[in-house]
């Protein structure tokens, strides 16, 4: 996998005078609410397949073997997101929306093609608890390193638009634009490994560190690298599902995680 890290903190690329404690954090889910983008992508994917089917039929080359046309019934956002949070397969979500199985591949190709388009990225919004949490980490002299399967350029654009750049020290992202949607555990592990190694090289403190995230990729990566893991259920996975992964802790949002995670080594040392 091709990874890329971007130093955006003021002193992040030089040897630190005072080593800082590092916390690793995912981007989509803990900081960004991607639910509307994913839902809009799903709706546009269905619409594109419907239009393609109509066009093919009009041209005398119908996509469906049977006579009747499509009868799509898009799910509500609440229904769609509940299914995503409980890891219902994309195929099942599509079929429950009235999409015939033979049109699933074109639908998914369309979804992957457009999910990172700027017209859809604009639906991304800041999680309500994120701003307070990022300020809290900064106040407590924590070095916050983002480890994300998003492209670093997308991450920086969002952070800049929200005025959050001064609160983030480093971004480790994937150069593959499709990595975030695929959300592969091995990609996340590799990125986290590189991030930990680089922070150690810079002299920062990664022992007693945490990986905070909202999916199995974050929890598994953190566990494999020997970190404590904080699973947040404000993202794309439900609390019930996250508990099956046995993270160190499950929290509702980044703020409650920050309050707990920052004080934990102090409690251990006391
Ligand atoms: Mg995430």
Automatic annotation (TrEMBL):
GO terms for cellular component: cytosol. InterPro entries: HAD-like_hydrolase_sf (IPR050155), HAD-like_sf (IPR036412), HAD_sf (IPR023214). Pfam families: Hydrolase. It comes from the Bacteria. Gene3D superfamilies: HAD superfamily/HAD-like. GO terms for molecular function: phosphoglycolate phosphatase activity. GO terms for biological process: DNA repair. This is Putative phosphatase.
């Amino acid at each position: 996998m091709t990874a890329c890290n971007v130093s955006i903190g003021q002193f992040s690329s030089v040897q630190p005078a005072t080593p800082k404690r590092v916390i690793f954090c995912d981007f989509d889910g803990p900081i960004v609410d991607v639910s509307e983008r994913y839902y809009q992508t799903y709706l546009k994917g269905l619409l594109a397949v419907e239009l393609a089917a109509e066009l093919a039929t009009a041209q005398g080359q119908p996509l469906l073997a049977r006579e009747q046309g499509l009868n799509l019934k898009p799910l509500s956002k609440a229904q769609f997101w509940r299914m995503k949070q409980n890891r219902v397969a994309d195929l099942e979500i599509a079929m429950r929306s009235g999409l015939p199985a033979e049109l699933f591949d074109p639908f998914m190709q369309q979804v992957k093609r457009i999910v990172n388009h700027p017209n859809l990225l604009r639906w991304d919004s800041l999680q309500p608890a994120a701003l307070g949490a990022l300020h809290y980490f900064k106040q407590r002299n924590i070095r916050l390193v983002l480890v994300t399967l998003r492209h670093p350029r997308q991450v920086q654009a969002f952070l800049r638009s929200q005025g959050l750049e001064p609160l983030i020290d480093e971004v480790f992202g994937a150069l593959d634009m499709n990595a975030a949607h695929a959300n592969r555990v091995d990609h996340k592990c590799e990125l986290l490994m590189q991030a930990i190694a680089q922070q150690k090289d810079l002299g920062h403190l990664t022992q007693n560190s945490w990986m905070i995230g909202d999916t199995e990729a974050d929890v598994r990566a953190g566990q494999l690298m020997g970190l404590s893991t904080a699973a947040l259920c404000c993202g794309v996975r439900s609390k019930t599902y996250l508990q099956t992964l046995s993270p160190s802790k499950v929290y509702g949002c980044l703020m409650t995680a920050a309050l707990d995670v920052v004080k934990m080594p102090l409690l251990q040392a006391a």
